[in-house]
Task: inverse folding
């Protein structure tokens, strides 16, 4: 690993002496299943993108599977999640059907956002997955507001606000930290530090490259964890979640991670040193976790082979579902404009006229 | 019927809505202990406490976004931006988030929030504190933008805005806060979003206006009726998005002449949109070109003589009316 990347691993909490005998084996296998699902879903998503089945921008979670699955394992069903635009894995690990996620990437009416949002704007009300947001840092004030609402309504639950490393440089981050602490809100800011904001290293973008320390001006507790270790990630999330819930205290959780590919599907990532990429990929969170489970005899080679086949089928079914799903109806172009309908707004007939003209020119 | 100020109408409405609905809360800079920079929230912290009336730090993007996030979980925040000039700091949360969330996520989350903020010049506050940015927000699908001109409308429209499930930008005007008008007591009336009102009927010419310019237009219409016998119809837009095109077009079809007055800058403004609408939908009815009266396109200067020259006035409107009527009456 390069000097820069090595520096990011300083002060990382990890636990290699874990006693898995106290764990529920079924649950441990389930984590691996979810990680593998994200891995294959994202690999096939990249493939579908190059086949032009998916449009727009597309950012993959490859390499970040342990961070995502550990996070989701550490929170509760009543909690709310806001993420950035690299969020396919998060919504999958939250339990949303891979078919509905893939259908959204395909722009279909059966997609999680009815084909209106695409890859960067996934949403699922039923699981409190409150959206992927594509303006860097836009989700942070929203997440703080959600935590404010939980406290106002005296409800159980915390809010997870996920973001990338470079997001900690924007103004909304600082304004939000200040208010989260002032109003004592149950929100956890999860900073996924994969070393780069697009092509800019953390050190070139942030005067304080140890990002978990950036809450100190607001007296917000911060921790750094090994984001490639699913169980550590889960345990730290669980502990910070309890603290947020019981003490109504915000916290920063920085997960050290590595993205296996470029910023987006079309980014060849030439700005990263070859040796760093080789090492980053060599330390694969899936392989690492599989070894832990094998060593503890929680899985064997036969199980690993079987789960690969199962995930392959699940992802293929998701692609088939997306493929076979209908496009949104053009009559519904204005369907979600307003939650409260009002006079003098365009409607179905305007949509039909616009669509007919577009169709003639197509 | 009692006569109250525009400020009182807003204050009463906020109080009534806080009483009516536990999910309604207020947030903004200096709205609590200081009682609001323009005292619109006077007495409300005392009456409802710090849970419902929340003083924020100076962090417009942060607290506007917070309000939107709280709205996504079912609360009804009413945010005060001290003056519209400061709303630019929050524009990402308004335009890229509040305005998009319901549509972009396929209708799964509404954002029932109101942002109240006064615009307007004429107070010698100079370039950064005298602006009118309503056109920037009226431009954005997903927002609802209101600009009431009277205490009666302010009350009925703020009620509607707070009960509406979409983000509403509620434009007030510094020079309107002390204006007075009749507002019924114990009357739960509401005014629908998206509907203009003909505030005065006439046959010779239509003035299209909103917010403070409606007050000015009504005054000019009265004077010209008395002094020159000209019959002027005044259409008060009230809602800038959605825009009530039928009411504008129907009025122009009747009077055949139109002058638009707006306090914002002339180019790319509300008036440009209305002039385009009139030529698209009432071209054959026009007896004269549609004229615009608007702010002069400079950063508003401080010196009184320069400020006066830059802002639209009754005389600017009267001149435009005379030009529009000339040779055609």
Result:
């Amino acid at each position: 690993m390069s000097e820069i990347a090595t520096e990011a691993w300083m002060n990382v909490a990890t636990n290699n002496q874990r006693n898995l005998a106290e764990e529920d084996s079924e649950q441990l296998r389930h984590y691996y299943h979810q990680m593998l699902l994200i891995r294959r879903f994202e690999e096939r998503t990249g493939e579908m993108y190059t086949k032009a089945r998916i449009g727009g921008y597309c950012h993959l979670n490859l390499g970040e599977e342990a961070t995502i699955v550990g996070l989701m394992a550490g929170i509760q069903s009543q909690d709310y999640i806001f993420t950035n635009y690299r969020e396919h894995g998060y919504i999958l690990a939250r339990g949303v059907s891979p078919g509905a996620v893939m259908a959204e990437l395909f722009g279909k009416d059966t997609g999680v956002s009815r084909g209106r949002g695409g890859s960067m704007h996934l949403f699922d009300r039923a699981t409190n997955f409150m959206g992927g947001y594509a303006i860097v840092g836009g989700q942070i004030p929203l997440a703080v507001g959600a935590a404010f609402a939980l406290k106002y309504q005296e409800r159980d639950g915390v809010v997870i606000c996920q973001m990338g490393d470079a997001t900690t440089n924007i103004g909304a981050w600082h304004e939000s930290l200040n208010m989260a602490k002032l109003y004592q809100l149950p929100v956890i800011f999860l900073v996924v530090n994969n070393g780069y904001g697009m092509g800019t290293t953390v050190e070139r973008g942030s005067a304080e490259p140890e990002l978990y320390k950036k809450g100190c001006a607001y007296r917000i507790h911060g921790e750094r964890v090994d984001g490639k270790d699913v169980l550590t990630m889960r345990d730290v999330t669980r502990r910070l979640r309890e603290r947020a819930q019981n003490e109504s205290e915000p916290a920063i959780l920085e997960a050290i991670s590595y993205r296996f590919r470029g910023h987006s599907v079309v980014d060849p990532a030439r700005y990263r040193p070859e040796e760093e990429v080789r090492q980053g990929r060599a330390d694969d969170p899936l392989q690492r976790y599989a070894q832990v489970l094998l060593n503890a005899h929680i899985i064997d080679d036969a199980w690993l082979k079987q789960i690969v086949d199962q995930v392959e089928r699940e992802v293929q079914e998701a692609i088939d579902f997306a493929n076979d799903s209908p496009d949104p109806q053009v009559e519904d172009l204005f369907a979600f404009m307003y939650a409260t309908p009002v006079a003098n707004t365009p409607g179905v007939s305007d949509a039909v006229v616009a669509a007919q003209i577009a169709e003639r020119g197509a | 019927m009692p006569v109250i100020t525009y400020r009182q109408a807003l204050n009463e409405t906020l109080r009534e809505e806080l009483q009516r609905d536990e999910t309604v809360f207020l947030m903004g800079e200096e709205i609590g202990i200081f009682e609001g920079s323009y005292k619109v929230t006077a007495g409300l912290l005392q009456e409802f406490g710090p849970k419902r009336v929340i003083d924020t730090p100076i962090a417009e993007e942060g607290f506007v976004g917070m309000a939107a996030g709280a709205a996504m979980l079912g609360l009804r925040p009413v945010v005060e931006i001290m003056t519209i000039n400061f709303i630019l700091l929050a524009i990402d949360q308004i335009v890229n988030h509040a305005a998009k969330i319901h549509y972009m996520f396929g209708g799964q989350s509404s954002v029932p929030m109101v942002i109240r903020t006064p615009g307007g010049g004429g107070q010698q506050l100079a370039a950064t504190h005298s602006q009118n940015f309503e056109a920037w927000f009226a431009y954005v699908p997903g927002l609802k933008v209101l600009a009431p001109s009277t205490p009666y409308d302010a009350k009925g429209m703020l009620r509607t805005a707070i009960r509406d499930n979409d983000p509403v930008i509620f434009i007030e005007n510094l020079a309107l806060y002390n204006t007075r008008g009749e507002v019924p007591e114990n009357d739960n009336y509401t005014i629908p979003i998206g509907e203009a009102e003909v505030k005065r009927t006439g046959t010779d010419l239509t003035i299209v206006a909103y917010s403070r310019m409606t007050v000015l237009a009504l005054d000019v219409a009265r004077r010209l009726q008395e002094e020159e016998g000209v019959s002027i119809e005044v259409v008060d837009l009230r809602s800038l998005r959605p825009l009530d095109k039928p009411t504008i077009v129907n009025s122009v079809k009747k009077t055949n002449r139109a002058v638009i007055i707006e306090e914002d800058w002339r180019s790319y403004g509300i008036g440009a949109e209305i002039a385009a609408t009139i030529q698209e939908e009432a071209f054959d009815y026009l007896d004269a070109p549609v004229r615009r009266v608007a702010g002069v396109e400079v950063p508003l200067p401080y010196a009184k003589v320069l400020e006066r020259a830059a802002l639209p006035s009754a005389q600017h409107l009267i001149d435009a009316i005379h030009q529009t009527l000339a040779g055609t009456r």
Q: What stands out?
A: Chain B has a mean pLDDT of 97. The domain at 197-325 of chain B is CATH 3.40.50.920 (Rossmann fold). Chain B touches chain A through 52 residues (CB under 8 Å). Residues 143 and 309 of chain B are 33 Å apart (CA to CA).
